[in-house]
Amino acid sequence: MIVSADWVLPVSGRPIRNGAVWSRSSRIDTVGHVDDVVAAAGPRETLQRFAGCAIIPGLVNAHTHLSLTGLAGLLPARSQREWNATLSTALRAFEDDDFSACAAAGAQRCLRSGVTVVGDIALGPESLAACADAGLGGVFYWEVAGIKAEDLSGELADREFPTNPGRSSAARARWGVSPQTAHTSGPALLQAAHRVASAHRLGFALHVAESPAEMELFRFGTGSLAASAHRLAHGFASPGTGTVEYLLRLGVLDGTIAIHCTNISERDVVLLKRHARGVVLCPRSDALQGNGRAPAAALSRAGVRMAVGTESLAVAPDLDIFAEARALRQLDVTLTPARMLEIMTREGAAVLGVEDAFGTLEHGKQADLVMLDIGATTDPEAAVVNKGGPDRVVAVISGGLWRVRDRKLVFPSDGTERACAAAGRRASDALSTKAPD
Ligand SMILES: [Zn+2]
User: How far is the CA of 158 from the centre of ligand 1 (A)?
Assistant: First the structure.
């Protein structure tokens, strides 16, 4: 199959005017000028042209909790402690199948936004399975928190964590461990989870320095998170430092994906560059929760690998990664359109550790392509980042299969949407009947 458009933006190279991409089965074969690609593919290949469009790599949303999709709009932005308590109430109302239904509904929203790669955190295998069915790839993290380190392997086994973590480069879906935060997992659990991830070369991601309340807890041992840290993070004692320094001293910063990094110091930026795999910034959810602004410009200057993520729909207004990238530009006005596109694609994939398969339009990579309506332009990168959004996504291919065509899902599932909405109603009922704290 060949798709062509006014522009092809491979990200691995300069924009190509009148470009085309030839993919065979699930992978990209040739990228170039349409005449060269057609000549390479031969006369038997079908060609579909997208006038007024740019073809870009499938986008990377590096931080989601898709199994919470049914909670969209239910949890009001408020203090982190209250928000956590409200979330717990809502989730207790979920039935077993609700997590799968929500993940599947979230996967459909991702595709409609041009996202084909996620870094998703969930309790078990439901999200990975639902996303693989829908055509999303990426890294799926099993979230552990509030348990003792010695219970980690039993907990992971109970939750069907893959025991044979082969990381075939052919695989679209990989997995990892997330100890949630350093104040809901104790120091020994952080170290045990990091050992599991390191031993099997799996992803290790957690929320880091997310809020002023977390900073107060780590520096002084006080504040709104102190009681929950005492209850959940076995063995936790305020280190008198920031979270990044704490993770370094525990020996778990190496290879870590640090999500949020809203409240970090200049030294933390240096430590992240030296030790971490990268950061995932979520500027819109940080702002909505009143958590502050990540030092995006300092992270960029230091050369820290950077991705953007929307957070869950329990916080974020939508899963629109273009809007998230534009919010990032407000934190660092020096970001060029080309750099923003890189963060949404190649660098986002590198933060997740899946750059061998995703993030650019190159021979051998997964055939994940987005056809984006940008109109007539001589600056396609600016048009993509300034105009991009779900309403501009004309078509999406992932793993060589059409997922969105003529702006509609190719495999829509009304049942999935209904089940996700039913989960949301259960949560909403639970929240409205719960006595206020
Ligand atoms: Zn999160």
Answer: 23
Q: Is 422 a domain residue? A: no
pLDDT at 81: 72
pTM of the model: 0.96
pLDDT for 168: 46
User: What tokens were used for 127?
Assistant: 């999200």
Question: Half-sphere exposure (CA, 13 Å, Cβ side) for 296?
Answer: 26
> Cα(226) to centroid of ligand 1, in Å?
20
Contact 117, 350 (CB under 8 A): no
In whole angstroms, give the CA distance from residue 60 to residue 305.
Answer: 14
Rounded to the nearest whole angstrom, what is the distance from the C-alpha of residue 388 to the centroid of ligand 1? 24
Mean pLDDT of the chain: 94
* pLDDT at res. 16: 98
Domain that holds residue 14: 2-57+366-409
Report pLDDT digits (tens) over 130-177: 999 999 999 999 999 999 999 999 999 999 998 775 554 447 999 999
State the CATH number of the domain containing residue 117.
Answer: 3.20.20.140
User: Tell me, what's the pLDDT at 78?
Assistant: 67
Examine the domain organization and report whether 154 and 274 are in the same domain: yes
Cα–Cα distance measured from residue 86 to residue 76, given in angstroms and rounded to the nearest whole number: 9
Taking only the tens place, the pLDDT of each residue in 422-433 is 999 999 998 888
* Ligand 1 centre distance from Cα of residue 65 (Å): 6
Q: How far is the CA of 61 from the centre of ligand 1 (A)?
A: 12
180 CA to centre of ligand 1 in angstroms: 8
The residues near 119 (Cβ < 8 Å, ≥ 6 apart) are: 60, 61, 62, 63, 64, 138, 139, 141, 203, 205, 257, 280, 307, 309, 351, 352
pLDDT tens-digit map of 198-207: 998 899 999 9
Sign of the four-CA dihedral 229, 230, 232, 238: positive
CATH of the domain at 382: 2.30.40.10
Tell me, in angstroms, the distance from the centre of ligand 1 to residue 64's CA: 6
- pLDDT score at 365: 97
How many contiguous H segments (helices) and E segments (strands) does the chain have? 17, 16
Q: From the CA of 310, how far away is ligand 1's center (Å)?
A: 9
Report CA(207)–ligand 1 centroid distance (Å): 6
Q: How far apart are CA 397 and CA 320, in angstroms?
A: 18
